[in-house]
Amino acid sequence: MHRRSLVAAIALPVLLHAAGPAPAAESYDNCTGFIDSVPAVISAKGTWCLRRNLATAMASGAAIDIRTSNVVIDCNDFKIGGLAAGTATETSGILARSLQNIVVRQCTIRGFLRGIDIDGFGANHLVEDNRLEGNTGSAIHVSGEGSVVRGNLVYGTGGSPASAASGIETWFAVDVIGNTISGVVPGPGEGPVHGILQHVNEGGTIAGNRIRGLAASAGGSYGIFSERGVRGSIRRNDLIGPATWAVHCSNASEMRSRGNLAYDFDNGISGCVDDGSSVLCLDDGSTVECVDDGVVAP
To answer: Span 265-273, mean pLDDT?
Structure first.
């Protein structure tokens, strides 16, 4: 191991669809039906599409409530907005509970307690290519074996008076790959702040994510927090503080850590099975010092 005063980087990193101000979809040929107003309940399988921006001021419940398995929500780069309900909102943007094979893609979702909320004991979900902005609790919350959360942009999460803040929160074996999380702040209660929060993961991977802008909090601020993870890996993530922990594993976790970059954190890799190929850059307020063992992870 050697020390160098240089900021180094080794880390590699149904249908409703909403994104930011973007053109309408090229085709709606595969749409089973359309969601033209909210709140909406989806009770038939298939692909359910947005064809305009939608908004609601409802303070609880769900803007889109999925109640059957095998549904795709494709927002076609349109928006679902809930900002009018304020930071105390208890509303989910898109909700599904204990279902199978739910897909959410190309949505812009703003101003909900949980932007995308796939909860319960389901499986095999896919959340991809969405933009989450200004949600107050967990921007993306996915529970279910065999699920994937990838390629999402998560901005400005937090502020709920009743919920801890997480950019992405998962339960069970969920792969979290190639997402960007920027800006996570606590609510008035100063609870913990997480870029990625993972519970009871058996075999899932957290890889190639970029996490930055975590605010200090009395409850602690964590780039990646894995609770009771086994046979999984945390690798090639870029994490930029300042914050308390870069990567923290708890409750006898057996998650393996490899090739992560952590800059300006109080603590680097803790509690995980670490192979030593990660880089921790420390900032004492006047100088920057990177600790590097010279190994670049594949």
So the answer is: 88
**Please, are residues 211 and 167 in contact by the beta-carbon 8 Å criterion?**
yes
Is the pLDDT at 1 greater than 60? The verdict is no
| Dihedral sign from CA coordinates of 170, 64, 81, 58 | negative
Residue 298 has pLDDT above 70, yes or no: no
| Whole-number pLDDT of residue 276 | 76
pLDDT digits (tens, 9 = 90+) for 125-139: 999 999 999 999 999
Structural fold of domain 2-292: Pectate Lyase C-like (2.160.20)
* C-beta of residue 250 within 8 angstroms of C-beta of residue 227: yes
| Cα distance between residue 116 and residue 129, in whole Å | 12
Residue 137: closest CA among 84, 96, 87, 201: 87
Nearest Cα to 260, choosing from 226, 217, 295? 295
Residue with tokens 């599409």: 49
Question: Strand pairing partners for 141?
Answer: 117, 169
What are the tokens at 160?
């709920």
Residue 29 · residue 5 · CB < 8 Å: no
- Provide the pairing of β-strand 210-214 with 261-270: unpaired
Q: Which residue has the tokens 């990660």?
A: 278
Which residues, other chains included, contact 29 with Cβ-Cβ below 8 Å and sequence gap of 6+? none
Q: Where are the domains of the chain?
A: 2-292
